[in-house]
Queue: 2 jobs
Job 1
Amino acid sequence: MKLVEVTTSAHQKEFIEMAVRLYKNEKNWIRPLDKDIEGLFHPETNKLFRNGAKCKRWLLENDKGETIGRVAAFINPKMKEKQPTGGLGFFECIDSQEAAFLLFDTAKAWLESEGMEAMDGPINFGERDKWWGLLVDGFSEPNYNMPWNFKYYQKFFEDYGFKLYFKQFTYMRPVQNLGFDEKMIKRANQIMANPDYTFRYIKGKELQEKAPEYFMTVYNKAWARHMGKSIALKEAQLMFGKMKPIIDPRLIYFAFYKGEPVGFFIQIPEINQIFKHVNGKMDLIGKLKFLWYKTFSPPNKMLGLVFGVVPDHQGKGVESAMIITYDKMSGKSSFPYKTIEMNWIGDFNPKMMRVCEQLLAEIYKTHHTYRYLFDREKPFERHRIFD
């Protein structure tokens, strides 16, 4: 076997195409958009490089020169951990422990040479909401930007010595003909009886002009202390701008207290139901296919992106009221979406797990994020639990 560092455009193409060949007989695998993967590894399209991030990629060839594996290793200066921790991701491999361990060893050696003391994997070279974790249960079609992998990968990671750092759950529930937990309904009724609270969609001009500001306000109060990062208005505007081609205003919902935003949930149509037809390419043909399927065969599944309530209004029933008032609309027969999936509920976030359970949603998929400490005598700690 021979390792080849990805340094040329031909290598970059092979990094994409080897996965396509590997999964060619897997009916549930959906080819990611090529640009969504390749764009992560270039300073022009990944701003982490401007903040000192580093990355290397390798292909693994057999004795015939055929690619049998790939891996990327990276250092993200925004990752704040007890010890310097790098990342391993975009791992793909034939069913060979020897090949898999060689790829792991290569990533580990480079990260050690850069001063890292641990590596997490498989993770993304960027934000946690994309390409993060190893699928271990629920091998149906992946949602957009969620990883799908062979079942045998789990044994590779665990036999190598990776330890479970946290689990990520995807919850699913039908949109119609399913009720709610009685305690949830009671809390919601108390809040809905308070005229200081209002709940509504954000649509029209307000969606582009004011929704980013509402989102930033709630996010920075509800999530920044956990995620270690606040967002600026410009970032929020950019996020909404990128979502514009796929936004359905019926899926954007906010809670207000005395006119000030205190909660939201943001959903999008699950667009992998469309992207699976474009074969990874958003060229002219791909765009035409996208428009055709979006118009004539639109997604019937919603994807929950993010949900939050500011701390001062948590635990009062605002979450429940938001969901139940929203359900009154989505329960109508004219509503086109049949199910909702809520990605990326970490097992370290019991509050969000309880919300999903009160929705009578069930765990539909499970991903694992692993950690490997280079000092094998150092005690291992799982991800801290959010309070």
Note: The first strand starts at residue 2 and ends at 5.
Job 2
Amino acid sequence: MNILITGAAGFIGSAILAELLSQGHQVHACVRNSRNLPKHPNLSVVCLNLADCLTLESWLSYLTHIDTVINCAGILTETQPGDFEQLHYQAPHALAEACLQQGIKCFIQLSALGNPTDGAFIKSKHQFDDYLLEHFPSAIIIRPSVVLSCRGSYGGTSLMRAIASLPVIPLAGDGSQQFQPILLEDLATIVSRLLTYQGDKRVFYPAGPEVLSIKEFLGNLRQWLKWPEPYWLPTPLSLFKKLATLNSKLNIVPFNDTLLTMLEQGNIIPDNEYQALSKELNYSPQSVKLTLLNTPSFVQDRWHAKLYWIRPVLWFAIIFIWLLSAVAGFMATPEQFAPTLNALAIPPAYQSTLVVLTSVLDLSLGMLFIMGWRPQLILGLMVLSVLGYTFMLGLFAPFTWLDPLGGLIKNVAILMMLWCYWAIKEAR
């Protein structure tokens, strides 16, 4: 079967892609970046941005000889207002319209479990679900609960691992909020089996066999990561709501008002759906709890869980250093910088200008880093600037190495900080 899949490089999409390829399907993967895709003779890659594919015409050229479309594209948080509408409704709506024009009758949609009143994320997903069920001959809507894998994580599941790494774990209220997690590998198998359901209009609710509280789930994760029992810290739900609202603006971690609302209301599939799905597909998803108990974790799993919190701390630290350095330069007086610049043989007439220029450089790099513009390039320029300062001062003003307050020697730590951030800067 020829299958087009959007979001093929994502957490869920990549697992579905691997499952389809293992079964011998010809897969056309639509992604923004192909780096995360495997090399496979049955795989062809289409690099595109869904935000640029909002019309029927933009999809037609990709649908030649396609039998089925699987839409796995999605985002948990918006970079700018309207992203949910564009990526969860407008782009897949245009794709679906193009499918109908090309005579493609089967469309599988990876949606989300929840209520449209929970927030814009769920609302935009379910808006497209409703369109498919009304207009498509064979519309298969998949609404899983929380998706987990022992082989890796992304987004909310990475956050869960990071929370489980804390010796003191804060809980929203008493941590009794419930959800019904499913293993990523089971979800991929279910999607592949649903390819045979052409001709039906159905909503499926894949989930594991047990309902877990958030406290149980975090405890199971911590046990899997081989850490002792933590201290549980019940926290007023009102405080969590304030933190979620603040994080929605800062976007430090994938946690916002919508996810908190979904957590409050519970993320459990409708009654009897687990048994019905297992019977129809002759396949029963595994227990997440038992899988975590029986599957070993490795040192990289523990590294990732702990380094998760270091990434935003390093981000703020780098910004603080560069902006404060710029401010210090703008405020410096000739009495402060003259001894060092004299040692570099900089003529006094040019010293103030040089200090201002280096301060402008620090300010520019700090602001571009905040904006996230080409982060790898900016990190490289930061490294070069630190090396430049260190080489020039260390060679021509060696007394700066022995500054009582640290002085030049601190540049070594800053270089290590930049190296560490470069190594862990990618969230996926």
Note: DSSP finds 16 helices and 13 strands in the chain.
